[in-house]
Design goal:
By secondary structure, the chain is an alpha/beta fold. It is about 40% helix and about 20% strand. It has 13 helices and eight strands. An eight-stranded mixed beta sheet has the order 1-2-4-3-5-8-6-7, sandwiched between helices. The protein is globular. It starts with a helix and ends in a 5-residue tail after the last helix. The model has no long low-confidence stretch (mean pLDDT about 95).
Length: about 350
């Protein structure tokens, strides 16, 4: 099959790269060999490259079945490039922030219509992090066989090339800055769209829980009619090998910097509920099928993605400090972990 049939997202991404021209810094972070081809994993950056400004990283396509995550990011990138032709305010914004895109992390999995990469490894179970608590059988990550889902990879082996590429970009573009955000786009869980934050390997709250609470309130105040559920991933289930737990744990050792990794988990069960025939399609379990529903999904998340870029620019205005930080922490502990306020 041709790339046009198997990976239209890759072709669309390459057209956007050509369209973006000098506005974009483009690199191939790694390549994935598949059937005599070398599929590229692109990283595209725009905005101010100085480490003195904040940054937002947008990631998608880590699971090959979840094409909608890649499509959401491509739609947002297309919108930004169109606005650069006329939007003076956007040009000013990009002087104060760095936007980094890895829209298609797992092209081999997307080509093969599998969750895992071509080696059978689930990239979101591939990091060297073991859960401190009980995980669901198989779902939480397993080392029995790459023929079973949620395979972590061989014990002691290096992370997969795609996982290493994500880590390298985060370590180069996001972590050196005083403030950075990451958003990883997925689908396949629940009837609601969720914004998950670490941890996935333990129910212990993260050190930056107050900052997450402040970000959620900022978004809810700015967009009071949104439909997202904010919660720690551990509230739903725990896993081994979570890539964002691994990167967050590496970053949190430097208390001078704030790194907030988030996951957009789009509620694909709602799409199936509205169109039960999708149950008979491998991709239908994870992606909206009718064109009008796909268009609605692509539209609906643009507000959230644009908000993150703006929130990063203004982070000094909303990050809690002093006594307000303690209050925010107590509120978040009560809300998400059921702990009584002091």
């Amino acid at each position: 099959m041709t790339i046009e049939n198997k990976l239209p997202e890759l072709l669309f991404l390459e057209r956007l790269i050509e369209e973006g021209g000098a506005h974009l810094d483009v690199n191939i972070s790694c390549t994935v060999p598949l059937g005599g081809r070398e599929l590229p994993v692109y990283t595209i950056a725009m905005g101010n490259p100085s480490l003195d400004v904040p940054a937002v990283g947008f990631f998608g396509g880590i699971h090959g079945l979840e094409r909608i995550g890649t499509q959401v990011l491509l739609s947002f990138l297309q919108s930004l490039l169109a606005r650069l032709r006329w939007d003076h305010v956007l040009h000013q914004q990009l002087e104060a922030v760095r936007l980094v895109f890895m829209p298609l992390v797992n092209p081999g999995g997307m080509w093969r219509s599998t969750r895992s990469n071509p080696n059978g490894v689930d990239l979101m179970r591939n990091a060297p992090v073991d859960s401190l608590e009980r995980v669901p059988f198989l779902l939480g990550g397993q080392r029995f066989s790459p023929r079973l889902p949620w395979y972590r990879g061989p014990l002691g082996a290096a992370m997969e090339a795609e996982s290493q590429a994500v880590c390298r970009i985060v370590e180069q573009e996001l972590l050196p800055r005083d403030f950075s955000l990451a958003l990883d786009c997925h689908s396949g869980f629940g009837l609601r769209d969720r914004i998950w934050f670490p941890h996935a390997h333990t129910t212990t709250p993260i050190a930056h829980l107050a900052d997450i609470g402040a970000l959620e309130e900022l978004f809810s105040q700015s967009h009071p009619n949104h439909n997202y559920v904010f919660e720690p991933q551990s509230l739903q289930y725990r896993t081994h090998g979570d890539l964002w737990d691994y990167l967050y744990l590496n970053a949190v050792s430097d208390s001078r910097r704030v790194f907030l990794p988030l996951t957009l988990e789009m509620g694909s069960w709602l799409w199936v509920k509205k169109n039960p025939l999708q149950l008979f399609s491998r991709l239908g379990m994870f992606n909206p099928q009718p064109v009008h529903r796909l268009q609605r999904v692509l539209r609906s998340h643009t507000v959230w993605l644009d908000f993150l870029a703006r929130a990063a620019c203004g982070h000094q205005r909303w990050l809690p400090e002093g006594p307000a930080r303690g209050t925010r922490q107590a509120d978040a502990l009560a809300r998400w972990y059921g702990l009584p306020r002091p």
